[in-house]
Amino acid sequence: MFNQALINIAAGNGASRRNQNEDIDGAELLDGVERFVARFISYPSEAAKIAHTLWIAHTWLMGLWDSTPRIAFLSPEPGSGKTRALEVTEPLVPRAVHAVNTTPAYLFRKVSDVDGPPTILYDEIDCLFGPKAKDNEDVRGMLNAGHRRGATAGRCVTRGKIIETEDLPAFCAVALAGLNDLPDTIRTRSVIIRMKRRSPNEKVEPWRQRKNGSEAAILAEKLKSWALRVDRFEAWPEMPNGIEDRNADVWEALLSVADLAGGDWPSRARVAAVALVAAAADTKGSLGVQLLSDLRVVFNGHDRLPTDDILHKLLSLPESAWLDLRGKSLDARGLSVRLRHYDVRPKQLRLGERNTRGYERHDLEDSWRRYLPDESDTPSLENGATSATPSTTSPAWPDTVGAVAFVADESEDEVTRSEREAIQLEGCGLL
């Protein structure tokens, strides 16, 4: 309703639009959006509020981006403000579609709308990737691929007796909200905001669309008018040190918006980027990555270890995650299955007078380099500004942890299909 009102408000001749563009100060506009969303949302940090404001603005400039970041509002418990964040976002972005449990056909056709791509606001995303995750692969594929311009979904369409193929575009802006975490393939393409339930001393205004929606529509109209003057950027943004690869893809559009707005937004945006990348790197990620990290601790000073010793050390780690995996502790078979995803397999070892099966350090070192952060790397900002949070380099989380085809090993007992699938869901943080 408010998006249609926005279209009506924004309608007018080209000359009046150009005059509006000249009168709109980008920094003041983003300040206004920031103040507006902060009235209704209790953010976990200043960085989260800045990122949300920039993400809202970037949805009005979708024609400029090669890649659009997802923004994900996540929390361990209900009642933490995730849905409220989407509700407040809805009237501020173009062609908003508030989706819950929608079909793939609906989403693909909304993205193909002749009026332009929508901004999808997907609530209860945890239901999409829960125990029935395999039933939602099409939606997951769209959310994964749709961050990149030019990504399409191929479909067969029946027209009468003729079957034809069609390519449906998947590129659009997406905001997500849900409990716990996301699969790695989506999480690494997202700005993660981990919401918290408000404490008694944290106050926000109640959101009422009938009352506050008109205020949001005015801001959205200004964002649209401001965006009309932008045909291209003279230069893409400089990234803070340590923010590279996938993290750079995520933040490129948001830092571009900050640079375009000017004022103190370029510096504030970079501080926010460093803080949120640091927070994401501080999580252990999938169980596969956590296992690699714990094995690096276990192998400290050892070139080879028998499987029994490795399991004993893993189970003895403080707050070990390996004591209770679906009701039982990690065993030799579970260790082998998880490490096969990283092309690491047990070997027959000769340790003194003892012949046993175990693992060698050099077989693990390649995976440690690829999937674990270098603790000596800390992203810093130019011009003397640095983050106070250490270890801010985000690990390159694998895109296919938990989804790699199982390869039989004649030296190991066969693992049942149901057990493998359970391990795959663990790898996505869904069990």
How would you describe the overall organization of this protein?
The protein has 431 residues and is of the alpha/beta class. It has two domains: 2-232, 3-Layer(aba) Sandwich (Rossmann fold), CATH 3.40.50; 287-427, no CATH class. The protein is built from 17 helices and ten strands. It has helices at 2-10, 14-23, 26-38, 46-58, 82-89, 104-111, 125-128, 137-145, 184-187, 209-228, 245-261, 265-282, 287-298, 307-316, 332-340, 361-371, 417-427, and strands spanning 70-75, 96-99, 119-122, 152-159, 162-169, 173-179, 190-194, 304-306, 347-351, 354-360. The protein has a five-stranded parallel sheet. Strands 8-10-9 form a three-stranded antiparallel sheet. Strands 4-5 form a two-stranded antiparallel ribbon. The radius of gyration is 24 Å and the shape is globular. The relative contact order is 0.13. Residues 1-21 and 377-431 have low confidence and may be disordered.
Percent of residues in helices comes to: 40-55%
The tally of helices reads 17
Amount of beta strand: 5-15%
> Using DSSP, what is the number of strands?
10
Q: Report the top-level CATH class of the largest domain.
A: Alpha Beta
The CATH topology annotation of the largest domain reads as: Rossmann fold
Mean pLDDT: 78
The secondary-structure class comes to: alpha/beta
The number of domains is 2
Read across the widest sheet, the strand sequence of neighbours is 2-3-6-1-7
User: Ranges with pLDDT <50 over ≥5 residues?
Assistant: 1-21, 377-431
| CATH H-tier superfamily of the largest domain | P-loop containing nucleotide triphosphate hydrolases
- Biggest sheet architecture: 5 strands, parallel
So what's the overall shape? globular
CATH architecture heading of the largest domain: 3-Layer(aba) Sandwich
Radius of gyration, CA atoms, in whole angstroms = 24 Å
* Measured distance between first and last alpha carbons: 39 Å
Summarize the helix and strand pattern as letters: HHHHEHEHEHHEEEHEHHHHEHHEEHH
